[in-house]
């Protein structure tokens, strides 16, 4: 083996301790910088205001799994809506200025709609159901 060869394979041996320390220092610096910038990013995000629901009805709609099927915008495009027959109601177009619709909707929420994937929600109070239907009507711009 030539001396050159030895040098090539034994870089460990000829590296002085200080070089190693510098390497460790550089790696640590990178690591700490990464950590600190992550903390900063998190703090920035936590300062952003959370979008608040515009009404109690909207809050109930968004927190009661309605959005799984009817979608966050109430347009029937929730992530569970794919392939459902019949499709979840699109409340952005379904609004009719008719009190009969409200009655039908209230019944649908309380008891579900037979033969469809619309589940029943028997635990809502009449007041909550009214707030829900008011909100659903507001999605199509009607107040019926
Ligand atoms: C698993 C999916 C699913 C979930 C969850 C769901 N729905 Fe439905 N919903 C449907 C489907 C599908 C229909 C359509 C039934 C039909 O065409 O007759 C429907 C119909 C309705 C109707 C009747 C519309 C009409 O014109 O008669 C109302 C009101 C309604 N949903 C409100 C809600 C509310 C409020 C929630 C949450 C509390 C909710 N839904 C949760 C699938 C769902």
Per-chain topology:
Elements: H1 3-9, H2 11-14, H3 17-47, H4 56-63, H5 66-70, H6 91-94, H7 99-111, H8 126-138
Helix pairs in contact: 4-8, 7-8
The structure holds heme C.
Residues 61, 64-66, 68-70, 80, 84, 86, 88-89, 94, 104-105, 108-109, 113, 116-119, 121, 132, 136 line the site of heme C.
Walk me through this protein's architecture:
The chain is an all-alpha fold and 144 residues long. It has 2 domains: 45 residues; 83 residues, Cytochrome Bc1 Complex, Chain D, domain 2 (Orthogonal Bundle). The protein contains 8 helices and no strands. α4 crosses α8 and α7 crosses α8. The model has no long low-confidence stretch (mean pLDDT 85). Bound molecules: heme C (HEC). Heme C (HEC) binds next to α5, α7 and α8.
Quickly describe the structure:
The chain is an all-alpha fold and 144 residues long. It is built from eight helices and no strands. The longest helix is centred in the first third of the chain and has 31 residues.
* Pattern of helices and strands: HHHHHHHH
Tally of individual domains: 2
The fraction of residues assigned to DSSP E strands is under 5%
Tell me the CATH superfamily of the largest domain.
Cytochrome c-like domain
Low-confidence segments, ≥5 residues, pLDDT <50? none
The CA-CA distance between the termini, in Å, is 94 Å
CATH class of the largest domain: Mainly Alpha
Broad structural category: mainly alpha
Main β sheet profile: none
CATH topology-level fold name of the largest domain: Cytochrome Bc1 Complex, Chain D, domain 2
Figure out the total of helices: 8
Task: Please tally the β strands and state the result.
Answer: 0
Over the alpha carbons, how many angstroms does the gyration radius reach?
31 Å
Shape: elongated
Small molecules in complex: heme C
Task: Specify the CATH architecture of the largest domain.
Answer: Orthogonal Bundle
User: Helix coverage percent of residues?
Assistant: 55-70%
- Average pLDDT confidence is 85
